[in-house]
Amino acid sequence: MEILKGLATVNAYPALYLEKYNAVVVADLHIGFEAALEKDGIHIPVSMYPKMKAQLTSLLDETKAERVIFLGDVKHEFGEPSVQEWVEVKDLLGWLMERGVSVDVVRGNHDNYIIRILKKYDNVTLHDPVMFLEDIMLAHGHKSFEIPSEVRVVILAHEHPAISVKDKSGAKYKFKCFLVGKYKEVDLVVIPSFSPLAVGVSINEAPKEELLTPMLHEVDLGEFTPIVVEKDVGAFKFPPLKFL
User: Fold this and answer.
1) CATH number of the domain within which 191 lies
2) Which one of 74, 100, 125, 175 has the minimum C-beta count within 10 Å?
3) How many domains does the chain have?
4) Which of 84-122 are b and which e, b meaning 16 or more Cβ less than 10 Å from the residue's Cβ?
5) pTM attached to this predicted model
């Protein structure tokens, strides 16, 4: 589904495809989240990384993309990479290098010290705090920044957007979604998390002041359109948030 000119969803994946650059954009993998939960006494029996790698494999196979842009929070720990992060991030980057895929990492707030892993790979470029593809500006979203006048589209992550809806019986369901709207004169797209564990914040229920992304505090969220992505179903465009 085309979100904006040159930007499209790919089936039900929580990812963007940038046609002109033959690139996919994914964010918030939070590799190592399971180890962090284990420290808090929450046991996740299996790592989510193999599932994310399988999804990314299918995504690359379907799009034939030659470039992957990780829009922040590749890893989860704020400090030094954990053992799980070292092992799985290295596996991810090594696998992408073997496929001949170039990699861009836009640094997120969880990506402290990630350079220690990235510097081992010639196919990886780190961008901090933003990345430009001509008139497209990409940032994780945890910081405020100036937008140059030539920018047409800003793509963010960080918020893990989702919406909650109820069925006729009153049961509530949460779905990951893209958010599409305007920031001043610029098109703004917020992409959902790629991690199965980070389902997200229900944008249609959360008080605006509790949102994590500074730029979202400056917009009328009611005018933003959610595009839900659900596995085995596809992508669905919902009415603007003010109607949900």
Assistant:
1) 3.60.21.10
2) 100
3) 1
4) bbbebbeebbeebbeeebbbbbbbbebbeebeebbeebe
5) 0.95
